[in-house]
């Protein structure tokens, strides 16, 4: 059963649509001319398609066909129970299925945070369906030299959130215990999120479980969303829970194993990397060596933005995307 949709979801987004895609029913939002170049916007964690509410109308007005799905396990898109059904093969397969449903041969794929990892896989796994890639905060990274969870535990400590997310059930329950508190903790201004990721008294970096336990939203002046916008995220995660999104993280090792034979470079596909100056999770320095692996690459920096770039600095993000799209994919 779908939740009662908060007013801001209806007023700030196009009407929700659904499609039978790759074994699931996917919710998505669409705007712009049907004959315009297509761009698919892929959100991260913990977000939904609603995080693109400021990009959808701007891109549509510029002549582009914009599609923003609630990805597998998020928002109004229900996900399966098996953890393995959230691996990269399924996530990229969902996007291919969405193109098939819409009758599209190709699209530009734009992804933020976890959505960025997915869209950077599209030219490696489905190059015939990928016209271009835009990474927002998330750079293209070569395959890890060793099993990634062991690396994260060694570098960041046992309580680092990605390591913690490997624990069955506990993270799901902790985040869902008070959804309003959880979303307020994550959706904060750059300095607050950076502080939450810092190592405390010899502990782990990005130990979000401990930071969330100590967090008091009543004393927090670092929110950047309006009350109406926050209400949408809270309602959607109260509906979906966090297990689907956490299951993406539980496939880090499986994705690493299955990616051993994938190409190591992206050639002949236009790519744009949009970095955020104050992102503590995905800092601009992570994109320093992208040119070694991506042949057709442009890089731009959004100043005074933390991790939630398309929501913190929507005008800057819209400007960079539209400028690049107009030069590489004229409407």
How would you concisely characterize the structure shown here?
The protein has helices spanning 7-12, 55-61, 88-102, 114-125, 148-156, 161-164, 170-177, 179-186, 190-197, 208-214, 227-240, 243-249, 252-258, 309-312, 314-328; strands at residues 16-21, 24-31, 38-42, 65-69, 107-112, 130-136, 271-276, 297-302. With 331 residues, it is an alpha/beta fold.
Would you give an account of this structure?
- The structure is a single chain.
- The protein has 331 residues and is α/β, with parallel strands linked by helices.
- The protein is 40% helix and 15% strand.
- The chain has helices spanning 7-12, 55-61, 88-102, 114-125, 148-156, 161-164, 170-177, 179-186, 190-197, 208-214, 227-240, 243-249, 252-258, 309-312, 314-328, and strands at 16-21, 24-31, 38-42, 65-69, 107-112, 130-136, 271-276, 297-302.
- Strands 1-2-4-3-5-6-7-8 form an eight-stranded mixed beta sheet.
- Strand 3, helix 2 and strand 4 form a beta-alpha-beta unit.
- The chain starts with 6 loop residues before the first helix and ends with a helix.
């Amino acid at each position: 059963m779908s939740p009662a949709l908060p007013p801001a979801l209806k007023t700030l987004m196009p009407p929700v649509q659904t499609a039978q895609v790759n074994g699931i029913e996917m919710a998505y939002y669409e705007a712009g001319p049907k004959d315009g170049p297509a761009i698919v916007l892929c959100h991260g964690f913990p977000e939904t398609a609603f995080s693109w509410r400021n990009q959808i109308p701007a891109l549509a007005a510029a002549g582009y066909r914009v599609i923003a799905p609630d990805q597998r396990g998020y928002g109004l898109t229900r996900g399966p129970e098996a953890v393995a059904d959230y691996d990269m093969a399924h996530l990229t397969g969902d996007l291919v299925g969405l193109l098939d449903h819409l009758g599209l041969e190709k699209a530009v794929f734009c992804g933020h945070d976890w959505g960025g990892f997915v869209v950077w896989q599209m030219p490696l796994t489905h190059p015939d369906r990928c016209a271009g890639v835009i990474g927002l905060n998330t750079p293209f990274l070569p395959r890890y030299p060793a099993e990634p969870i062991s690396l994260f535990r060694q570098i960041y400590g046992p309580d680092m959130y990605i390591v913690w997310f490997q624990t069955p059930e506990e993270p799901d329950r902790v985040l869902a215990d008070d959804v309003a508190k959880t979303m307020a903790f994550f959706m904060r201004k750059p300095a607050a999120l950076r502080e939450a990721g810092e190592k405390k008294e010899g502990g782990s970096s990005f130990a979000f479980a401990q930071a969330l336990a100590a967090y008091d939203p009543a004393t927090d002046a670092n929110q950047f969303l309006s009350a109406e916008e926050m209400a949408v995220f809270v309602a959607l995660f109260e509906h979906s829970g966090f297990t689907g999104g956490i299951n993406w993280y539980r496939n880090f090792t499986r994705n690493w194993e299955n990616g051993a034979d994938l190409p190591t470079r992206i050639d002949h596909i236009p790519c744009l990397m949009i970095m955020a100056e104050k992102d503590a999770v995905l800092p601009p320095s992570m994109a320093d060596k992208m040119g070694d692996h991506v042949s057709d690459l442009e890089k731009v920096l959004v100043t005074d933005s933390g991790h939630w770039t398309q929501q913190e600095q929507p005008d800057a993000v819209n400007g960079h995307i539209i400028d690049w799209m107009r030069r590489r994919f004229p409407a």
